[in-house]
Amino acid sequence: MNQVVFIELINPFKDKVFRLAKRLLTSTEEAEDATQEVMVKLWNKKDNLDTYNNIEAVAMTMTKNYCLDQLKSKRADNLKIVHNNFTDRQPQLDKKLEDADSLEWVGKIIGQLPEQLQILIQLRDVEQYEFEEIAKIVNMNETAIRVALSRARKKIRESMINTHSYGIK
Amino acid sequence: MELNKIENRLEKYFQGETSVAEENELKAYFSSPNVAQHLKQYQSIFGYFSQEKEQKMTQEIPLQTKKRNVTWLSIVASIVFLLGIGSFYYLSNNSTNAVVAKSELGTYNNPEEAFVATQKALALLSNNVNAGIESVHYIKEYEQSKNKIFKQ
């Protein structure tokens, strides 16, 4: 497999890997590093990539594990500064400030969820994977995923409502 | 889509029972301008998901092909180098045997003739050199008389 073929192969899910990494890690830079790391790992395995039947799922699993490892290795560090640069590079800056603000709030709320739930939200609500695919990536069964996802979504809703009606009720 | 259908679907969504297609319908509904007032609070959630999906990885991915190229190149280079040396020796050996030996004969075609002529030439040279050396012997006389005068 040469470089061109490999790039073609990873292009469809490269951004998904990046976004999952960004969901879990602190900054864009870290997420980029993680993505590079995962891709280089895949590249080094390029001779037996054919043995996997779903490379995208493998890549996503690798990303998940890599990010969780990263988090574990610096759990005590600067994790509290999370998400302050989340919307900096967003394209939709022309949106009304208020809108942008509440979108940012959603990001912050998701950031406060446990990592497992963050992963599920990212995979399902952002990347829109089917439950079957998510099951492969996170190694859980579909029912458990549905339950966890429902919990995550309800938590987001709850927090959003609290935020929106803050000071009113 | 009718409002009650949306509400219904939203409830399903929070139970984690919607399909991807149904979730897309929800996203489409919430990104449209006419969202019902009491559902506005969910708008930002779906808006956020759509927005997050737009993010792109901008960095290049450094694939380690360079290192491999270098080893490959060095192998090729060494092969070329060895071939070069080999062919140089091969060709030059051939040419010394044939071409140079012939040219050493000079204007003669036969090696024996050339040998005789060379001997003759060398004898002539040595005769002349010896003649020269005889005259050098006189210098000895000077040396002796010098020793007589300047006693050591």
UniProtKB/TrEMBL annotation, chain A:
The keyword Magnesium does not apply. It comes from Flavobacterium cheongpyeongense. The keyword Transcription regulation applies. Residues 104-156 form the RNA polymerase sigma factor 70 region 4 type domain. InterPro entries: RNA_pol_sigma-70-like (IPR039425), RNA_pol_sigma-70_dom (IPR014284), RNA_pol_sigma70_r2 (IPR007627), RNA_pol_sigma70_r4_t2 (IPR013249), RNA_pol_sigma_r2 (IPR013325), RNA_pol_sigma_r3/r4-like (IPR013324), WH-like_DNA-bd_sf (IPR036388). GO terms for biological process: DNA-templated transcription initiation. It comes from the Bacteria. Residues 9-75 form the RNA polymerase sigma-70 region domain. Keywords: DNA-binding, Sigma factor, Transcription, Transcription regulation. This is RNA polymerase subunit sigma-70. GO terms for molecular function: DNA binding; sigma factor activity. Belongs to the sigma-70 factor family. ECF subfamily. Coiled coil: none annotated. Pfam families: Sigma70_r2 (PF04542), Sigma70_r4_2 (PF08281). SUPFAM superfamilies: Sigma2 domain of RNA polymerase sigma factors, Sigma3 and sigma4 domains of RNA polymerase sigma factors.
Automatic annotation (TrEMBL), chain B:
Keywords: Membrane, Transmembrane, Transmembrane helix. The chain crosses the membrane at residues 70-91. This is Uncharacterized protein. It comes from Flavobacterium cheongpyeongense.
